[in-house]
Structures are given as structure tokens and as C-alpha cells.
């Protein structure tokens, strides 16, 4: 096993191995279990940060100049169905890998208040971490789906066992919603797989897809050179039956350079149209977008604080990641046609989530609905496509980068907001906004950090929440000025519920709830979690290029590929359809004129 294979696999299997070792620690040694789990998350974070810092080394290092997949691992897994153990990351997935490692380590620090079944909690927590990493670095569709499902069970138990009074209801609701989306995704995956055919790709496209060689040179090695790809293409071209694949990169090439997914499926719509819709619904449930969002407030309210941090900071981002990684590159024709639908869903989520947050009296539920609103910016930014019709991919480029930055910024601010709510809840055991007040006088250090994080969620310039929202609103202007104005208007609503909550909780004359004596200043453990989030919220707001520099090359390349597809494939297709419609109308017009003349003549005779 080479170093790259070991390092990439460690992102997934190191947390699982740590979980297996922790399972052997006696359950009554709670602090040992906690520290062991924290150490595992810190080691994983350290490895990822080293890869981020020292680009170019033969580990999990990341080269910001490279647009394609890096640190690719491709090993045969189920050769009968061309299913591979296929891992890698690029400028879209690597920032999310770093975010996952960071939030997981901080959330484990916030788990010290968990006192029931500590060993079971820590084992499930590490299994969840391994599943989240697997989703972001899997490049085989089948493997991606497995890790997507792996996350479901530990999160179900983490909410259902360690949650609040209605934990069973919230856990079942989360499970059913996510499972429903997963079933739709599975149907779409099968539709795409059984219509794929590697024989349709050119040797260069096979190289770009890192497709596995079979029968050429070394069996089991990914194709990396044009000569080997040419031999492989000649080999599979002689086969009489299609060569199906789950390779996500190959499926992207098929979606943009072949007509394999364009055949009519149901009700006059193409196969890729239906695949896009099914995949989008599955990912929109995870985001979540209205009207698929109703599981989120219940899950957040009942989940313990660290699990709410994971849920908001990482799990929601998987929906946006799936849309930009899978939906648009594999189903570009459907993405183009449904741009208005996607953008409208994004704006609806933004407005609905903001109004719902304004109506809440539960502090945690308010923050939960704010996530629905903020993730609407992600959907809107990813949906801004048809501005490329005029030969200007800049708008969509700005939208995609704004959406990805929003995912990172929201991961920091939302995890911070949920943690700050949890700090108060651990002391006074309630979240009623109407019973708070005057916390600044009792907990000034805590209040100062909480205001930084809540203002980051507000989108205040100079903090991490502003950049992504601003880029998304700017990107949508060419697509629709009305949607741009609506997106800008949501900023006012966001300021409304954030400032109102700050005024009711931290300012005001006095605290009106129970357990006032428990309102003590934030301790060192809590500061160790809050300070990094506050620092990053400021850093990403003041120096946004600390994030953009990692995604620029990859996003530029993907947007340019789809802009080229729009110009060379979609526009000629639309022009041809328009010409055929005009030709049909011209052929029908004389008959209609003759029929009208006959009617007039008949009336004259009468």
C-alpha cells in the first residue's frame, strides 16, 4: 500500500479503527473514553491541516494550482459490476473535508456534558465521522451511496438516545425523510448506471475519468496516460454489450459529451431530466430546502448540542456538495432547463426560513430555521446557470463560488451559534427567548463571543457570513433581477431575527427565567471551542481568499466546461428545435388559411 492510498483511506478508516478500540475500554472510565475520542478527532484534524498547509508532498497534500482530482486512490472492489474503491478530492471537496475535521473535533470538545452511555456515544460519533469523510472523498457512485447511508444510523441513535424530551419523534422523522431521499437517489443512480457506456468515451475522456484498466498493462490500475487509454478504448469497443460504470468522473464525461442520458424516459422527458429531479430532491432534503425541510427544526431542537453542531456544520453541506458534484456535471441538460425551478426553490427557502425564524420563541429552533434560510443561498448560487447563454460564465462562476463559500461560512457560524445556545442551556435548562435578558452583565466574555458568531450568521461585512451571500446575490442579477432583489431583501429579515434574539437574550434589563444563580462565565473548555470559531469567522470575513484559493481552479474548470457545453451543445439544440417549430408552423399556416377561407365562404353562402 503506497502512502497516498494509506493517507486517503485513513480519513475514513482511522475514525472507525478508533471506534473499535474505544469499544474495548470499560464503560465506567468515562473521561478516558472522552479523551481518547477527542484525541482521535484531533489527530485526524492535524493530518488534514498538514495536507492543507504543505501542498505538493506525497501524502494527502492539496495543490491549489491543480483543477482536477488529487490524491486519487483506485482499487478494484466489486469488479463484476465495475465498482471500485475510488477516492480523491479537488477544490470542491477538500474545503469540506477540512470543515468536517474541524467541526468534528470542536463538537467532541462540546460533548463533555454527555454523561449517559458515554462509550456508545463516542463509538457512534466516530462512525459518523468516518461516514462523513467517505461522502466527500468517494468518486464511485456506489461507494458514495454506501457512505451516505452509513451516516444515517449513527445520527438516528445520537438523536434518539441522547436527545431531548421528543427525541424519538425527531429521530424517526429524520430517519424517514433522509431514507426517502436516499431511495430517490438510488433509483436515479440505477437509471444512470444502466444507461452508461464507457465505449462512448474517447481515450482522453477516459484519462480524465481515471477509469480502471482491465486487460491493458496492469489489471486494476487507473488509466493515466493516453496510450494506455487508447488500448483500453480499443478493447472495450469490441464488446457487444455496454460497459456500465459507477465512476462519477466518467459519468460526468458522458453527461456532457455523449447522448447516452438524453433518450426519452417518461412523460416526454429525458432520462437525465428524471435523474436530475430525483437526485435534486434527495440532496434538497439533506440541505434542507423548503418544502423538504420540516425534519430539521425537530432534529436540531431535540439533538444534544454537539450533534446539532455536526448537523448544521457538516451534514447540511452534503446536500449542496451532491448538487454541484453530481447533479449539474452528469445531467447538464436538465440542470439548464430547470434553472428557474432550482433558483425559485432557493429563494423560497431563504424567505420562508427567515420568516419562520422570526416567529420562534425557542432559541435553538430559531437558529435551526436560520439554517434553512442560509442554505437557500447555496441552492440559489448553484442554480444560476443560464447567464452563460450570453457567453458570460462569470455570473455562474460567482454563484458557485459564493455558494461554496456560504457552505464553509455557515458551517462556522451555525456550529458556533448552536454551541452558544448549548452553553446557556447547560446552565439554566431552558431555551425560552422571552425569559432571557441581561446576560451581558452576568457573562460578558461569553456574550462577546456569542455576538461575533451571531453577527457572522447575520451576514455582517467583515465576518464569514457576508461574502457568500453577497456573491450569490450579485451572481443572480443577470439571471433574474427579481430574484436578486428578493435575495437581498432576505438580509433585512435575517438582521431582524438575529438582532431581536441578541436584544432579548444578551441585552435587556434583567434575566427573567429560572436558575439565575447558574449563569456563570464561560469556562476554559468552552472557550477552547468558541475562540477558534470566532477567529475563523473574522478571518474568513476579512481574508476570504483563505477559502477561495482552494476552490478557484476546480470551480473555474467545471464552470468553463459546462459553459462550453452550453455554447456548443445546448444552444445549437435549442436553435434546431426553434427552427423545426418555425418550419412546422410555416407548413401548417397555409392549411389554416385555407380552412379560414372555407369557413368565410361557407358563411357567405348561408
TrEMBL record:
Name of this protein: NADH-quinone oxidoreductase subunit M
Listed InterPro entries: NADH4_N (IPR000260), NADH_Q_OxRdtase_chainM/4 (IPR010227), NADH_UbQ_OxRdtase (IPR003918), ND/Mrp_TM (IPR001750)
Topological category with respect to the lipid bilayer: Multi-pass membrane protein
Organism whose genome encodes this protein: Blastopirellula retiformator
Family the entry assigns: Belongs to the complex I subunit 4 family.
Gene Ontology molecular functions: NADH dehydrogenase (ubiquinone) activity; NADH dehydrogenase activity; ubiquinone binding
Residues covered by the NADH:quinone oxidoreductase/Mrp antiporter transmembrane domain: 138-197, 261-489
Principal cellular location given in the protein's record: membrane
rRNA processing recorded as keyword: no
Residue stretches making up the NADH:ubiquinone oxidoreductase chain 4 N-terminal domain: 80-130
Gene Ontology cellular component terms for the protein in this record: endomembrane system; membrane
Regions crossing the membrane: 6-25, 32-54, 92-114, 121-139, 174-194, 273-295, 307-326, 338-359, 366-387, 407-425, 445-468, 480-502, 523-543
Any GO BP annotation: ATP synthesis coupled electron transport
A UniProt-annotated Pfam family: Proton_antipo_M
Keywords: Membrane, NAD, Oxidoreductase, Translocase, Transmembrane, Transmembrane helix
Compartment(s): Endomembrane system; Membrane
EC annotation from Swiss-Prot or TrEMBL: 1.6.5.11
